[in-house]
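Structure, all two chains, one model.
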Amino acid sequence: EDQVTQSPEALRLQEGESSSLNCSYTVSGLRGLFWYRQDPGKGPEFLFTLYSAGEEKEKERLKATLTKKESFLHITAPKPEDSATYLCAVLNSGGYQKVTFGTGTKLQVIP
Amino acid sequence: DAGVTQSPTHLIKTRGQQVTLRCSPKSGHDTVSWYQQALGQGPQFIFQYYEEEERQRGNFPDRFSGHQFPNYSSELNVNALLLGDSALYLCASSVPGLANEQFFGPGTRLTVL
């Protein structure tokens, strides 16, 4: 069964203090790895899709990278508005479109 | 362009009752997936609908059922509600072939008393 483990569970950063979130995964053939941002009480907001090891994608202060066993979400010089829970999810190549999510990293950026 | 919409926003039911949640997908999307998200957890896949048929199902009992209409909108029905069914129910829409880039609605918060 597909598994996704995210660490740390929670992260508190000062504004401008760069850091990385980790997503370790076990999947029977990776079709795609996804990063989402979720604000309290709202639905997840799509950020990135990564398809193969070595791939990188960037959006503003966020950069996602992928290896064969894990993905990192790097946050450069974060701002308070980056505070949210960041979810990682995987889609395997066997089934149709059953996506398996991790439990997320709750990020708090302090001014 | 309207994104994914869900109704109602909040719902309070008692144990044993039945509930129906509704979802309209993003324009141009024909596939709808439903997720259950308990507090502090990641979304758990319930099932997915495509061409008005259930295409794949997660580890949820038969009390959870769904339907997709010709206009691609969808319903999630839960029978014989349990306290443990209290959660945020999320609908996501996508287009097959785009590696499942799913776009989520705001969710329906269900509380079972």
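The mean pLDDT of chain A is 94.
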